[in-house]
Amino acid sequence: MIEQTPWFVLTLCIAATFIWRALGVGVAARIDPNGALFQWFSCVAYAMLAGLITRILVFPVGTLEQTETIDRTAAMIVGFVLFFLLRRNVFAGTIVAFLVFMGLAYLRQVGGV
Amino acid sequence: MATDMTTDSSPQSPPSGNRKAFSSGMLAALAMPFWMVVGAMIGFGSMIRTAGMELGIGIGSTLGIWGLPGQVAMLELFVLGAPLLAIITTSSMANLRFMPMVVVMMPLFRGDPRAIRWRYVMSQMLSINIWTTVMNRCPDMALKDRFPFFLGVSFVCLIGGVIGTTGGFVLAGTMPLYVTLSLVFLNPAYFVFVFSSVRARNCIIAVIFGAISGPLIHQVSPDWGVPITGILAGTAAFLADRLWTTRSGGSQ
Questions:
Q1: CA distance, residue B6 to nearest chain A CA (Å)
Q2: Distances in Å between the alpha carbon of B220 and those of A59, B211, B214, B217?
Q3: Is the pLDDT of residue B6 over 80?
């Protein structure tokens, strides 16, 4: 039995993650960027990322688990309003959502909400 | 005086398109992605400290795994004392998304010999923050500028990763909880808006399908939820887009 030092585990995790990256390189070299398969990969990539991000916000794991669903939702809604009002301004949406969320998190911490 | 001033624009120095593209990549990263990485990695750095691990492990996982879900999975399972194989597969699966991300990004660099030589290094440097920036900016860029632009974005984001991880480790426990929570919230919030800005129709459909089904599929399979969502929602979006094209008589 090999001893599971953090560095040993980390090295294996890095290698295991790199497999996906390298596989991507292999497929990318052979794919036709105008073909249907490429379109499919594109859809899969975007769906995967969108699914992951909403999952993190709706069912967070780890640090965000300590926050309230209603706070995260409210912050995103206010952010979206600004995002669309300013013609899809990513910066405005993000900053406003962040500030609303921070305000709510602060109020919860000091017992205001 | 006038001649002195003209010599200032040193005609000897070659026009450095590379340097310009690299700098514009760095600037693009500093506009938003850098801060998002810092914020996200502050959360990770403080988790490392709380778990009683050394800072080097934190920085090593940020630079080496370079994908937060996989980093968090590794840390949590390691702390729980999970079997080695479980730690490695769960951590790796959490970052499976790199595979389609690389497939979709690399053709942007096709024809540039530097990108062929460094393709595996590029794939290792890639993260979601870098990917969205590159996917957004590079299509409108000359081919030769894309590679240095990518390096500029990646360089700044990697530095952001080290700064964030170190900062979070050092500040763990000293920052008010609401600040830590808000910083961790920042990056996913940012991506919601980034993905709400995609322009290609097939991508828009994929984002909508993925966003709706992601949390639902997670309920069924927390470990495999992300790849399953990608394949199911991605395939559905692909078919819907095709159907749309056929229905509208082949026009776009």
A1: 40
A2: 13, 15, 10, 5
A3: no
B64: its two tokens? 């080496």
CA atoms within 13 A on the CB side of A89: 14
**Strand ranges (E), B112-187:** none
Query: Which residue of A16, A41, A53 is in closest CB contact with B188?
Result: A53
Distance between B3 CA and the closest CA of chain A, angstroms: 45
For chain B, say whether A100 makes contact (Cβ under 8 Å). Answer: no
**Interchain CB contacts (distance < 8 Å): A and B:** 303
Tokens for B145?
Answer: 């500028």
- Indicate whether B100 pLDDT > 50: yes
Average pLDDT, chain B: 91
Q: Which residues of B touch A50 (CB under 8 A)?
A: 195, 206-211, 214, 233
Nearest to A11 by CA among B89, B50, B88, B99: B88
B12 has a pLDDT exceeding 70: no
B69 contacts B169 by C-beta, under 8 angstroms: no
Give the DSSP per-residue string, A47-62: HHHHHHHHHHHHS--G
